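Please think about what follows:
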Amino acid sequence: MTEQTREEGGSPGRRVVVVGAGMAGVQTAVALREQGFTGTVTVVGAEPHQPYDRPPLSKAVLLGKAEGSAFDVDFAALDVGLRLGCEVLGVRPADHELDTEAGPVPYDDLVLATGAEPILLPGAEGVPGVHLLRTLDDAERLRPVLARQHDIVVVGAGWIGAEFATAARQAGCAVTVVEAADRPLAGVLPAEVAAPMTAWYADAGAELRTHARVARVEPGEVVLADGSRLPAGAVVVGIGARPATAWLAGSGVELGAHGEVVADDHLRTSVPDVYAVGDCASFPSGRYGERLLVHHWDNALQGPRTVAANIIGLTPAAYDPVPYFWSEQFGRFVQYAGHHTTADRLLWRGDPLDPAWTVCWLREDRLVALLAVGRPRDLAQGRRLIESARLLDPAVLTDPAKPLKSAAVS
């Protein structure tokens, strides 16, 4: 196809196939239509359900307060085709064909939006009573477990583990969370920031066991490496996720160290006419000077606009967002923006023993990341400060009584 055709919004015969019916895939289809693409758009999804949003699964859906979380998208009105319950098997870029269990699907442009899949607990596959929480079916299987108020063991004190433990306590279950590291969120936050969160578990009536490795899961019990046994009517595993890209083996699409699709700053892959967006892809960040792999909802929401602009033939700016996510756990609203590993300084706004506080990470007196607990205004103002890269006055920044934005040096 010529650039002229792309600039006109794509010819009616041009075919875009999107693999993945989650947020990134659905928003890619929506963005294509919003930006004027006139060709064929088809979304291929492995699950049979109408495309749905995932964050409510660990909250309202899990607790039976909602039957589902389908996207409010009229696919028929957008003239977007859906192929649901269709597993992808591979892609042949030279032929411009996607292989699926229902047969080959030809494309002119292909968008990889397959997201991430949960990491399984070694040795626990197929053991009765062991659950994951990633899909709508997972949430539906767990709802009666919570309703029966089982003793529940959660493996992993990360974001999903904390959110599930919160829901289980709200349902009246006895909850024990086991974490191999010395603190919650050990893989994503430094010790001094994660330490205050340890008390949240006890405050909510959940037991947190750190330095606790699971040796094996037996019917009705979890056996730890030290020999102790925990009663478990159900076990929920939340030890992380990896990009769902195994099906790309042998395709020529470059994968990174974590199995993610390696995309450039316009979310193009190493293969012509193939793009990648959302949890399955990493991208180079000029803002942070390193490649980022972001497994969060906001990335899946923002990236599709860049992909759509590329497909149509526009010239989008390099994709370099300020990463953002939130979590609701143990009665607290936790928000994070930025990327703190490049920081040279950490400052507190407020006392972490209080209900609301914020941590700010700076590099050369410019904000690069912040974590806000119960302070949404800090988050909103901080995100803008990260984007603008303005110099800040640390003395003003650390005063929780002053608006965060007032720390900017004019």
Q: What stands out?
A: Residues 120-237 form a domain with the FAD/NAD(P)-binding domain fold (CATH 3.50.50.60). The chain has nine helices and 26 strands. Residues 1-8 have pLDDT under 50 and may be disordered. The first helix runs from residue 3 to 7.
